[in-house]
Amino acid sequence: MADELETLPSFKHHRESVAAFARTCFPNLLCQPEPRLKARRRWERSLINELRQHDFSIYQWWLAQEKQTLLLTMDDHFRKHLGAVFVPTDTT
Predict the structure, then answer these.
(1) For residues 71 and 79, what is the distance between their CA atoms, to the nearest angstrom?
(2) Residue 17: what are its φ and ψ, rounded to 5°?
(3) C-alpha count within 13 angstroms, C-beta hemisphere, residue 25
(4) CA dist., res. 51 & res. 58, Å (int)
(5) E-assigned strands of 3-75?
(6) Cβ 67 vs Cβ 47: under 8 Å
(7) What is the largest CA-CA distance in the chain?
(8) Does the reported pTM lie above 0.70?
(9) 44-89, pLDDT tens digit by residue?
(10) Residue 7 pLDDT more than 80?
(11) How far, CA to CA in Å, does 26 sit from each of 7, 16, 18?
(12) Phi, psi torsion values for 55, nearest 5 degrees
């Protein structure tokens, strides 16, 4: 569109300006690409509860003689934390 408008006398605008104007004023006339599905990463699972990850965090959470261990459980599909609990020690 910008190339054709340049053929008009005394019309000097940047291609980005013409594209922004067209997107703002005529959004229905522009071809929009089909939305694509987000690619799943290699380590992410495709189904809920297919894989759960447990992560231990040993840290001084409160004043005590020894550090406390926090166990976090995460669903790999949603990458959301399912729960957290303090345990006496980290184990496999």
Answers:
(1) 16
(2) -65, -40
(3) 6
(4) 23
(5) 52-59, 68-75
(6) no
(7) 82
(8) no
(9) 667 777 777 778 888 888 898 888 888 888 887 777 888 888 888 8
(10) no
(11) 21, 15, 11
(12) -130, 130
